[in-house]
Design brief:
single chain
């Protein structure tokens, strides 16, 4: 279901909220996937390219600014090459980790990633997702 960020329902701040965002505009066929995670234990803005939210326009930045008064923890480093097309796999990987484990430190989410070997990172998340969701 494609929903504009202005149409996201009111969040329940007592539980873990996972919001998957695709940066494609209404007329674009492809975009980039981002993860916004809001929970009582912490808030994360995760982008495998490690870009600032404003890179993708004001809507994402404004959404992050308005949904909670708490700050968002950002990815500590880039894990994916701009030539790669598996950004959605990173989102599924992080979603699974954040919803099934007690992750409060962003470094826990990035422990298995290399800062320069992006193809190794892609392989890691693709295998992880295929193992969980099937091939």
């Amino acid at each position: 279901m494609k929903t504009d960020l202005t149409e996201v329902p009111q969040l329940n701040y007592g539980v873990k909220n996972v919001i998957v965002v695709n940066t494609a505009g209404k007329t674009e066929k492809e975009g980039h996937f981002l993860l916004i995670f809001v929970s009582p234990d912490g808030n994360f803005y995760l982008d495998s390219l490690n870009e600032n939210p404003r890179t993708y326009g004001d809507k994402i930045y404004n959404f992050l600014s308005n949904i909670t008064d708490q700050t968002f923890v950002k990815a500590p480093f880039r894990v994916q090459s701009v030539q790669s097309s598996v950004c959605g796999y990173y989102i599924l990987y992080w979603s699974k980790m954040l919803t099934t484990k007690d992750v409060t430190d962003v470094n826990d989410l990035f422990r298995n990633f290399d800062r320069t070997k992006y193809s190794d990172n892609d392989t890691l998340v693709v295998r992880f997702v295929k193992d969980i969701f099937g091939k």
